[in-house]
Every structure is written in C-alpha cells, then in structure tokens.
Amino acid sequence: MRERLTSRMLASALVRRAGQDGGFATIMRKGDEVAGTILLLCMEKGEALGLFERMPDYEGGYRLVRCGPNVEAFSAESPPYLERRVKTDPDIWIIELDIPQPERFAAEIIC
C-alpha cells in the first residue's frame, strides 16, 4: 500500500500556498486529521464557482470532482448541502478557497 499525506497536512499546505500566491483560504471545518474527506468551496474574487471533493481515481492518485448544488443555485442551496455532508460524514474537512483558477490551483497541491 502506498503511503499518503494526511488530510491535515494537505489542508495546511493548501491554506499556506494560497496565502503565498496572493489568494485566500480558510478551514471552515476540521475533520479527521488523518483520512478525512476534503471538500473545497471554490471562489474567484468572492464569486462562488462551486464545490469540489477530493476523490481517489482509478490510477491510484486523486482528482477533484464537482459536487453539491449547481452554481446558479449555489448561495441558497449550499448551506443545507454542507450540513447534510457533515451529518453523514463527521470526518469531512471544508475549506474555502478564493484564488484565480481555484480548481486548478487546488489540484496541483492536493491531488
């Protein structure tokens, strides 16, 4: 089995790198420090672009997959969606990321 970085290390790296690159990231909810799912609230200049979840792929790595409500209904539907996710997975991490091209940026760091 391949060793992997912990969720806490990945979340910390994402927040640190976003700040270094002139963006903003904050951990909205801490999950399991070792193996918690990472959910990203991606924004650009304060405008929501969607939710993305870090998931394993078939090649043994990870990728970001869009999840949750569509962008048009995002502001109204995202809080109930996040509440449901926390209820069904109390180990989940929720990170807000506001930086240009947030999906690409996050994929480079945590995938």
**What is the number of beta strands?**
5
CATH class designation? Alpha Beta
- Low-confidence parts, pLDDT < 50 over ≥5 residues? none
Radius of gyration: 13 Å
CATH architecture: 3-Layer(aba) Sandwich
* Strand arrangement, major sheet: 1-5-2-3-4
The major pleated sheet works out as: 5 strands, mixed
The computed structural class is: alpha+beta
| Total separate domains | 1
Name the shape in a single word.
globular
DSSP summary: helix tally = 3
Q: Could you name the CATH homologous superfamily?
A: Protein of unknown function (DUF1491)
- Within the CATH hierarchy, at the fold level, what is the topology? hypothetical protein tt1805
Our estimate of the beta-strand percent is 25-35%
Listing every helix as H and every strand as E from the N terminus to the C terminus, the arrangement reads: HEEEEHEH
The average pLDDT is 94
Q: What is the straight-line distance between the termini?
A: 17 Å
Describe the structure in your own words.
- This protein has 111 residues and is an alpha+beta fold.
- It has a single domain, classed as hypothetical protein tt1805.
- Helix content is 34%, strand content 32%.
- It contains three helices and five strands, in the order H-E-E-E-E-H-E-H.
- A five-stranded mixed sheet has the order 1-5-2-3-4, sandwiched between helices.
- A hairpin with a 2-residue loop joins strand 2 and strand 3 (47-56).
- It is globular.
- The protein starts with 6 loop residues before the first helix and ends with a helix.
- This is DUF1491 family protein.
- It holds the Pfam family DUF1491.
- It comes from Rhizorhapis suberifaciens (corky root of lettuce).
